């Protein structure tokens, strides 16, 4: 998969064009280094989407993870942008919930951004539904 195809897939998952469960299965098929690279990419997208504290509860709900999953706990205890590195650095057995949380956080933050730039936006990832 090319970087552009990966970016397209992650944005389709975040926008709920493709199911999160499908994305989680795709993510699980990668080795640990591949997973970490995907989490890092998602973290950058979350920063670009300007995720903030108002996004975290909806993101955790959307992610469908347990309240006690480390990624959900980390997201709740601090400013999301500051918690991203910790979430990306979680050990292998916690990476799938981390993936689900980051995709969902991107989706919630990006929903807000897409509404605010409606009709003016030329970002390719905001044109996926068309």
What would you note in describing this structure?
- By secondary structure, the chain is mainly α.
- The protein has one domain (3-126).
- It has seven helices and no strands.
- It has helices at 3-14, 20-28, 32-48, 56-63, 70-77, 80-88, 95-116.
- The mean pLDDT is 90.
Poorly predicted spans:
none
Report strand %: under 5%
Secondary-structure element sequence? HHHHHHH
Q: Report on the biggest sheet.
A: none
What is this structure's SSE topology?
Blueprint: H1 3-14, H2 20-28, H3 32-48, H4 56-63, H5 70-77, H6 80-88, H7 95-116
Helix pairs in contact: 1-7, 2-7, 3-6, 3-7, 4-7, 5-6
Short description:
This protein is mainly α and 130 residues long.
Essential attributes:
130 residues; single chain; globular; DUF5958 family protein; DUF5958
């Amino acid at each position: 998969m090319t970087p552009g195809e990966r970016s397209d897939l992650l944005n389709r998952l975040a926008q709920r064009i493709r199911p999160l469960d499908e994305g989680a299965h795709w993510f699980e098929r990668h080795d640990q280094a591949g997973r970490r690279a995907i989490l890092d990419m998602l973290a950058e997208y979350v920063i670009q989407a300007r995720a903030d504290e108002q996004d975290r509860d909806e993101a955790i709900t959307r992610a469908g993870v347990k309240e006690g999953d480390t990624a959900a706990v980390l997201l709740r205890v601090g400013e999301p942008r500051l918690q991203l590195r910790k979430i990306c650095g979680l050990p292998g057995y916690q990476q799938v919930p981390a993936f689900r949380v980051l995709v969902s956080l991107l989706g919630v933050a990006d929903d807000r951004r897409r509404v605010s730039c409606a009709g003016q936006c030329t970002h390719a990832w905001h044109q996926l539904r068309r």
